[in-house]
Automatic annotation (TrEMBL):
<dbReference type="InterPro" id="IPR052579">
    <property type="entry name" value="Zinc_finger_SWIM"/>
</dbReference>
<feature type="domain" description="ZSWIM1/3 RNaseH-like">
    <location>
        <begin position="122"/>
        <end position="196"/>
    </location>
</feature>
<dbReference type="InterPro" id="IPR048324">
    <property type="entry name" value="ZSWIM1-3_RNaseH-like"/>
</dbReference>
<protein>
    <recommendedName>
        <fullName>ZSWIM1/3 RNaseH-like domain-containing protein</fullName>
    </recommendedName>
</protein>
<dbReference type="Pfam" id="PF21056">
    <property type="entry name" value="ZSWIM1-3_RNaseH-like"/>
</dbReference>
Amino acid sequence: MKTDCPWRLRVVLQDKGESCGQELVIREVKNDHNHAVIPAAIARHPKKRKLDESHTEVAAEFLQLHANKKLVQQTMQKKTGQFVTLKDLSNLQQKNKKKNPVTFGELVDHLRSLKNDLVIQAAHDGTEVQGIFVADQEMLKLYKSYPEVLLMDATHKLTKDRMATYILMAIDGNGESEIVAFFLTQNETHSLVLQM
């Protein structure tokens, strides 16, 4: 599988005469290699590991259902007889990921459609949603009970979109912190944080 390997097999087409036709004749065999010719190493080469289209679709479907990659690997090796690495499966999973990320607006619509007790506040910049404030009824009840001290902690780059995630906490009567809300923002401007 190395490039510029000196191995050669030279075959020529030779006439056997008018009545017999032609035949292939081996003129030269050079059996020297500049790489290992171990069958196990050849089976692990990327070109040999490539699954055909039908098996690729089956593996992609398993991965989309969040199946254990090790079990998918074993299943595909049994079905195809080919060596499949976990990296191959990770690459396949990455290739088949949904290309269009969910927008803030779609996330707000989805959360509101769940018919639960969440309080959702969306902050707009005029054209699109820039932040989402989320709290449930229990969180709001805790905040109303202990509004004296409100702590805010921001974690950056926590989501795949690298948005800032803020957690709001109140201190209860026992001196313990309780989460009373959280919000995600695409930017941290003063006006946007005030909208939350």
